[in-house]
Amino acid sequence: xxxxxAILILPYFIxxxxxxxxxxxxxxxxxxxxxxxxxxxxxxCRNEQKNLPALLNSIAHQNYPxxxxxLIIVDDKSTDKTFxxxxxxxxxxNILTLDNKGKGKKQALRTGIMAAKGILIITTDADCKMGKNxxxxxxxxxxxxxxxxxxxxxxxxxVPGVFGKFRELEFLSLQGIIAGSAILEEATMxxxxxxxxxxxxxxxxxxxxxxxxxxxxxxxxxxxxxxxxRAKILWMESPDVLVITESPSTYRSFLKQRSRWISKGKxxxxxxxxxxxxxxxxxxxxQISYLIACLIHPxxxxxxxxxxxLKSVPDFLILxxxxxxxxxxxxxxxxxxxxxxxxxxxxxxxxxxxxxxxxRNLNSPFPKEI
Length: 370
Known about the structure:
It contains 12 helices and 10 strands. The chain is an alpha/beta fold.
């Protein structure tokens, strides 16, 4: 009877193996022709005077004709020199700097997209870095496939220490799940730090983004697109479009970011995302429950180990694939320690979310999502 609850982990095991199998179908995209689509790059930012110059220089050095793209910077009530830095930048001829007409990141993006001239919108964040072919390859992929949304890869910067390696592994795992679910045509997540979509698709779904919740501009758009006629949503695999974003600098900022992710979960109505969330929650709850039970009844250690193995096998396969594609296999030596840390990490995020509810504050000093 002690083994019976462990059966509840099987849906997680099966679902993640399914995602892993889909990752084996990934093919790297190479552009064969020079695209001609006019693209609008939209960046919503707040108090980013430190990071913004590097992003502006990255955009200025894009291998894409300047007459075929524009950069729109929307300042979300910054108290530093973010607006001035963008407005005075001379490296891009077609740059537009706007004040947010509302409050928060969603309204800032809406302000920028409403002013955009491009058929294709690409969003990123002020602390991101990208290669010179970023716009060109995304535009070429769009012209070939004509999707409503293109989900592109993101990595966080490498930082030293056990916690830094744990964050990188977790983020790689998320990238694997994002890519795998998109390939299955069951996309559950995306990342606004490297996301493309048509302006028409955004305008058709901009009223369904849950403005009452500060975060989720990217995922709520994805979920809205999936409803009805199920828009064409594609994962794009290319080293040329990979974006590197800043890692949370402290454990508290990391918890704050993850608690924002949890806060928007109650508004999810997408079946694929809800199923993934439920099976993951059950799996982590089983891990924690049996870990505590082992302290009382040491004989249950075998049940705990069985649960750990059933969770770890598909997790490792997804990480093996994703780390291999991004030349990060050196991180896999941290896999087992991270598996042991993970239940405690989940508990800390849950407790933080319950104790500190400032994640809904539109004036939060951490308005950006990774």
